[in-house]
Design a protein that fits this description.
The radius of gyration is 24 Å and the shape is elongated. β4 and β5 form a beta hairpin. The chain is built from 17 helices and 5 strands. Strands 1-4-5-3-2 form a 5-stranded mixed beta sheet. α4 packs antiparallel against α6 and α11 packs across α15. The protein is mostly helical. Bound molecules: zinc ion. The site of zinc ion has 6 residues, from α11 and α14.
Length: 475
């Protein structure tokens, strides 16, 4: 899942990462209990919709795809699914998601305020002077500047972070951690951010010193290489610090998933379960990693709250990310965005230094005292580009949905799990809202896709488990 607003107050590395955001492509989420959304079935016998008419929740394949769908109306069916969500629940999740629009703005303003404070107060220039005092090594100077910079920026940004990721999540019943375990994880994450960002900054400033005019090209190369490394090592070294991943052993869940993997030539031998309920009540699954470290995992909330058709729908979506090479594609898009972003940054940075450089004590791009200015410009560009970045990701997610529905063949499962996701994503936004703020298709759009697929009534062979069919018993 791409969460641009969540990283706006973070150091520039995270802003760069947020442009790329390929660490994890999360598909679905939500925390509605199964009782609230299960079995809102749609009858295909007549064009009218009868919630509770009995979709089979326990079957391995969707019973819906083999029934008569001649008079099936996808628009009415979509409405009927949406209508199964109780009014108060719908209002609550709308409120939660719309609050996120404002948080986008607050995070941006806080990032701007922190940067302007560090420049105007000359704290940034003092930090640079101190670093130059401590060591004559250029690279060590960057580290000596960067570490206190991250500590100050992180501390100043903490109150909003705390509200957004702790208080608010608890208010909406999405979080499961008490303060201390949560804070401990924040500290671990912050420590990793400081280490990673400092390494990146040492490399970037080496580029800035050597190529004062063309640094934006080489800077983009360095940033993309760095992002690739982060994406590759995250599932192996970072995620295990927060959660436990273990192979799913229940054959009733594992085998149907591996069968879909096999049907799409995905070399998966195992499907993983992650104990996300340690942190959250959200239903989700993800594909993480790149090349050899790619791993498909579903979370324990999903396993507990969803039926097999829903699980298959979600896993087929995640497989779509893998088969359609979304990791590599998003990295490529990121490279383009970063190069354009840094080219614009160069213009703005030079103009700002010409105008305020003396006042702030910033000498030029190779001077670490200009880091808050760099952060300010990058935050602004990411903020302005939010609809564009969301749209790029949303289109990618829609591709995975299309792949998923054709692989899982579970239109009702997809609709049901989409409603569970509606616990934290507005189900039925206006088109403008969807364009600006949605990094996944809205619930309405996803259910409509599933119902359109169902209405098309594609022919399919009857799938009969037998000894000749290796997927039934060989895993
Ligand atoms: Zn996805």
């Amino acid at each position: 899942m791409i969460n641009i607003h969540a990283v706006m107050t973070k150091p520039p590395i995270l802003i760069l990462l947020s442009i790329g955001v390929v660490i994890a492509l999360t598909s679905v989420g939500g925390h509605a209990s199964p009782a609230e959304t299960a079995s809102p079935a749609i009858s295909e016998k007549v064009s009218s919709v009868e919630p509770r008419a009995g979709i089979n929740d326990t079957g391995h394949s969707s019973p819906a795809i083999v029934v008569n769908t001649k008079s099936f109306d996808p628009a009415a069916a979509t409405k009927a699914w949406l209508a199964t969500v109780p009014h108060d629940q719908r209002e609550k999740s709308d409120r939660y998601f719309e609050g996120g629009y404002w948080l986008l703005l607050w995070n941006f303003l806080v990032a701007v305020a922190i940067s302007i404070f560090l420049l105007e107060s000359r704290v940034s220039a003092h930090l640079r002077n101190l670093a130059e005092h401590l060591t004559s090594s250029r690279s060590l100077q960057i580290a000596c500047y960067a570490i206190p910079y991250f500590l100050i920026a992180g501390t100043l940004g903490f109150p909003l972070d705390f509200y957004e990721h702790f208080v608010r999540e608890h208010q909406y019943g999405l979080a499961t951690q008490s303060f201390l375990p949560w804070f401990r994880e924040q500290l671990i994450g912050f420590g990793l951010t400081i280490i990673g960002s400092t390494i990146l900054l040492i490399a970037l400033y080496a580029v800035f010193r050597r190529a004062p005019r063309t640094w934006w090209v080489w800077g983009a190369v360095v940033a993309v290489l760095f992002m690739t490394v982060v994406v590759v090592i995250t599932p192996v070294f970072v995620e295990p610090l927060f959660n436990t991943y273990k192979p799913i052993t229940n054959p009733e869940i594992r085998n149907p998933i591996l069968a879909m993997a096999q049907a799409n030539q995905i070399p998966a031998q195992q499907v993983f379960e992650v104990d996300a309920s340690r942190q959250t009540t959200r239903v989700s699954a993800n594909v993480a990693g790149f090349l050899g470290t790619t791993r498909i995992a579903l979370n324990d909330n999903l396993l507990k709250q969803c039926t097999l058709p829903e699980i298959r729908a979600v896993m087929a979506h995640e497989m779509g990310h893998y088969v359609l090479n979304h990791g590599a594609k998003l990295l490529t898009y990121s490279a383009i965005f970063i190069a354009i972003g840094l080219a614009l940054t160069r213009q703005m940075f030079d103009a700002a230094v010409r105008r305020w450089g003396v006042k702030w004590g910033v000498r030029g791009i190779a001077d670490p005292a200009g880091l808050p200015l760099l952060a300010l410009i990058l935050s602004t560009l990411v903020f302005v580009a939010t609809p564009l970045l969301n749209t790029v990701v949303r289109v990618t997610e829609r591709e995975a949905d299309a792949f998923g529905i054709n692989t899982a063949r579970e239109p009702d499962g997809m609709a049901k799990v989409t409603l569970k996701l509606g616990a934290y994503r507005k189900l039925d936004p206006t088109p403008i809202e969807e364009f600006f703020f949605f990094d996944h298709p809205s619930g309405r759009a996803r259910i409509r896709m599933a119902m359109d697929w169902k209405a098309a009534n594609l022919p399919c062979a009857e799938w009969v488990p037998s000894r000749d069919n290796p997927t039934t018993d060989s895993h």
